[in-house]
Design brief:
Length: about 450
């Protein structure tokens, strides 16, 4: 308990933000394991229809991240984040009324658009809350997120074991209750107002010489260094799916390792992230650090894929030993990858456009995850060891570009964005009545 307590900031608005995220992710941990089971076993929908609804809704939501992030920049991140949590709260209750494919598609589309609004607004709000400590607070947030998902999954396991329709429905409503609780906690944060866009000098043909115009609205799409990062970081996001998709299928279908070793892999991954995310992530603060972290991630992911590729045709004990080695390496790669993305995603954007930048990177990651099942199962696993090694080599090549992108980003940052971390607003722990509608 002392260690878990150490994952949360000491007090104030930082602790409130992390606690809100923790409670919300407990709900996510409850819903993730039961969603498909609920619709196939309890509602009685065909698995193919459920899969199609999930896929279509996910694809529809991908383009929504950028405008949602831009909206958070324009109206304030807390407003958009609370609206997203309110919509997620509706989703859990709406599960109770799904009867066919079309109602399922509607509910899942609401889920997809809610998440598309949640992630960029949460990133923008975190920057306002964290100030100079943004990257550190983000690492703490990720550690407690993994802890929350694990706790939620344990709760879901109880309902799955009971197996009755009532048990599943209680879990769905519990998800909604967690989102509403997370939402209410956010009202203890200041209602940060939008930051003004800086002006820039533009050539003018008249007698005045130059005129002052606002910075471009779509600045994230014009920032070539960030676009390069988003494409590389988004492509590397497929590493998140290795654990969810490849490892279970590989263990059960292609090795002699016992089936329960799938659980060992998940527990080991979660435990290492909770134990090491803050310790390793706290050392990765600058854009340059982020580039180095992506390179380390690529190396570790290659070695982890190589270790897992050797499990085939080995006796059970040897396969289990290689699984443990591979999972340690993959988890280290995961921690370095996400820590590197934190440094890029909070170091490159100007504060006034954090939501827009966050939305763009979220869209790139979502697109990569959409194609991940076909890539990981259709290409990698179908070719066995060669597929694992090819995947590892791809992740290595992507990671090796990190330092060059970081150098590009540092060279192209305006001087004003390097000294800007908006700490004045975070010095007041509670909002004024004028700022907070509650």
């Amino acid at each position: 308990m002392a260690f878990v307590k150490s994952l949360f900031p000491e007090s104030g608005i930082e602790r409130t933000y992390v606690t809100s995220t923790f409670i919300g992710t407990i709900g996510a941990g409850i819903l993730l394991p039961i969603s498909i089971l609920y619709f196939t076993r309890i509602v009685g929908l065909p698995a193919a229809e459920v899969g199609l609804a999930f896929t279509v809704s996910g694809l529809l939501a991908i383009p929504a991240s950028i405008p949602a992030g831009a909206l958070a920049d324009r109206v304030g991140p807390r407003r958009v984040m609370t609206a997203a949590l309110a919509a997620l709260g509706v989703v859990g209750v709406a599960y109770l009324f799904v009867q066919n494919f079309w109602t399922l598609l509607a509910v899942q589309t609401l889920m997809g658009f809610s998440l598309a609004a949640y992630f960029p607004s949460a990133g923008a709000l975190l920057r306002r809350v964290g100030g100079e400590r943004t990257v550190t607070i983000r690492s703490q947030t990720r550690a407690v997120t993994n802890l929350g998902v694990a706790l939620g999954s344990l709760i879901a396991g109880i309902g799955i074991e009971i197996g009755t329709p009532t048990a599943y429905r209680i879990l769905a409503v519990t998800f909604s209750a967690a989102q509403v609780t997370a939402l209410l906690l956010l009202f203890r944060l200041p209602n940060y107002q939008p930051l003004p866009r800086p002006s820039q000098d533009a050539p003018h043909t008249g007698e005045t010489g130059t005129v002052t115009t606002p910075a471009p609205k779509r600045i994230a799409l014009r920032d070539k260094a960030f676009v390069a990062y988003a494409l590389v970081g988004g492509a590397m996001a497929v590493q998140n799916m290795i654990m969810e998709i490849m490892v279970p299928v590989w263990i059960v279908g292609h090795t002699h390792a016992p089936a329960w070793s799938v659980t060992v892999a998940f527990v080991l991954n979660t435990a290492l992230v909770v134990l090491l995310q803050v310790r390793l992530g706290d050392k990765i603060q600058t854009i340059t650090d982020g580039g180095t972290a992506l390179r380390r991630a690529g190396i570790a992911l290659l070695l982890g894929c190589a270790a897992l590729s050797l499990m085939a045709d080995l006796p059970a004990w040897a396969a289990l030993l290689l699984l443990i080695v591979g999972m340690v390496l993959l988890t280290l790669g995961e921690i370095w990858y996400v820590s590197g993305t934190f440094a890029f995603e909070y170091g490159l954007p100007p504060a006034y456009a954090q939501g827009q930048y966050q939305g763009f990177s979220s869209s790139a990651s979502a697109a990569a995850k959409a194609v991940a099942p076909a890539l990981l199962l259709g290409l990698a696993l179908s070719h066995g060891r060669i597929g694992w090694l090819a995947l590892g080599a791809l992740l290595l090549l992507l990671g090796l570009t990190g330092p060059a992108i970081a150098g590009w980003g540092v060279r192209t940052r305006p001087a004003t964005t390097t000294t800007e971390p908006v700490t004045a607003e975070t010095s007041t722990p509670t909002p004024s009545p004028a700022d907070d509608p509650v």
